Amino acid sequence: MMQSSALTTEGSVKGLPEILGVPMQQIPQCAGCNQHILDKFILKVLDRHWHGSCLKCADCQMQLADRCFSRAGSVYCKEDFFK
């Protein structure tokens, strides 16, 4: 009987980083969802890493793509920042 090579010794399923030979400790975690970022692009705002879909305005929750503004550790769209 064949054993699955996708299982680690702890019994959890290996993810893409282990398959590619990258330690999970070297994969940044998203500040928005706390998941490891395996996307092609990683956003870095306020010295924190983000998935593109997780970087959102703290007030209106609009996804921030082009630019963002920060105050007191939170990220805002232009409209909410200048309210």
Features:
Cysteine Rich Protein; LIM zinc-binding domain-containing protein; 14% strand; 2 helices; mainly beta; Znf_LIM; two-stranded antiparallel sheet; homeobox
Describe the model:
With 83 residues, the chain is mostly beta strands. The strands form two sheets. Strands 1-2 form a two-stranded antiparallel ribbon. A two-stranded antiparallel ribbon has the order 3-4. The radius of gyration is 17 Å and the shape is elongated. The model is unreliable at 1-13 (pLDDT under 50). Helix content is 10%, strand content 14%. It is built from two helices and four strands. It has a domain at 29-82: Cysteine Rich Protein (Ribbon), CATH 2.10.110.
Under the CATH scheme, the architecture of the domain at 29-82 is: Ribbon
Unreliable segments of 5+ consecutive residues: 1-13
Structural class: mainly beta
| H-E string | HEEEEH
Share of helical residues: under 10%
**Overall geometry:** elongated
Give the CATH class of the domain at 29-82: Mainly Beta
CATH topology of the domain at 29-82: Cysteine Rich Protein
Largest sheet: 2 strands, antiparallel
Distance N terminus to C terminus?
Answer: 65 Å
> What is the typical, i.e. mean, pLDDT?
81
Q: Taking Cα atoms only, what radius of gyration do you get, to the nearest Å? A: 17 Å
Q: Helix count? A: 2
Please give the order of strands in the largest beta sheet: 1-2
DSSP E strands, number? 4
